[in-house]
Design goal:
The complex is a heterodimer of chains A (118) and B (110).
Chain A (H helix, E strand, L loop, with lengths): L3 E4 L2 E4 L5 E7 L6 E7 L6 E7 L5 E2 L8 E7 L2 E6 L8 E8 L10 E2 L3 E5 L1
Parallel strand pairs in A: 2-11
Antiparallel strand pairs in A: 1-3, 3-8, 4-5, 4-9, 5-6, 7-8, 9-10, 9-11
Chain B lengths: L2 E3 L3 E5 L4 E8 L6 E6 L6 E6 L3 E5 L2 E6 L4 E6 L8 E8 L6 E3 L3 E6 L1
Parallel strand pairs in B: 2-11
Antiparallel strand pairs in B: 1-3, 3-8, 4-5, 4-9, 6-7, 7-8, 9-10, 9-11
The chains are: A mainly beta (118), B mainly beta (110).
Chain lengths: 118, 110
């Protein structure tokens, strides 16, 4: 099956600093990747859709200047949380759809990154 | 608007059968997914239905009725490790984006 990795798996940072989270599709190419945020005991909340070679599409209420997304290649998307605050502490998960092939209907999830802002 | 409904929580007994329902109202439809998510972990894929009917995969089965906007996930021979949240998601036609339900927390008791 297809594998998506995320790095780091967890990070603790101080308020006001920036944190970069990487999402990689290891054995397939993904034109589109998705970034989600999940608070404790709540469901997934889509933050943005990351498109290779173009600007990300952000969901309503998500600040694009705070959550910078770069999708520079077909296997890598990054999410940078700028000027992080304690309320940004959450579980961030990425997912990707294979560009083609028999597995292209499924969305594969990375293992998630737990961000704690102190 | 887009709306997906599923029960918040269900409880079942080890060895029994449980059915988790999901109803949806979306602007488009290109398949319905069920994912399992254990606490603190990312979701893992369970099933995908795009045509009406039942898809069986081991202890898990998923059913879809597009005309009714309805799906269910059936779990048989429940095991303690099945305690998790089960997420229903619908793929709308554009951009492979998934619309997610809030998830059903399944509690398995001995």
């Amino acid at each position: 099956g297809a594998v998506v990795s995320q790095h780091p798996s967890w990070v603790i940072c101080k308020s006001g600093t920036s944190v970069k989270i990487e999402c990689r599709s290891l054995d397939f190419q993904a034109t589109t990747m998705f970034w989600y945020r999940q608070f404790p005991k709540q469901s997934l909340m889509l933050m943005a859709t990351s498109n290779e070679g173009s600007k990300a599409t952000y969901e309503q209420g998500v600040e694009k200047d705070k959550f910078l997304i770069n999708h520079a290649s077909l296997t890598l998307s990054t999410l940078t949380v700028t000027s992080a605050h304690p309320e940004d502490s959450s579980f961030y998960i990425c997912s990707a759809n294979p560009t083609s092939g028999s597995l292209s209907y499924e969305q594969y999830f990375g293992p998630g990154t737990r961000l704690t802002v102190t | 608007g887009q709306n997906i409904d599923q029960p918040t929580e269900m409880t079942a007994t080890e060895g029994a059968i449980v059915q988790i329902n999901c109803t949806y109202q979306t602007s488009g439809f290109n398949g319905l997914f069920w994912y399992q998510q254990h606490a603190g972990e990312a979701p893992t894929f369970l099933s995908y239905n795009v045509l009406d009917g039942l898809e069986e995969k081991g202890r898990f089965s998923s059913f879809l009725s597009r005309s009714k906007g309805y799906s269910y996930l059936l779990l048989k021979e429940l095991q303690m490790k099945d305690s998790a949240s089960y997420l229903c998601a619908v793929r709308v036609i554009s951009n492979y984006q998934l619309i997610w339900g809030a998830g059903t927390k399944l509690i398995i008791k001995p």
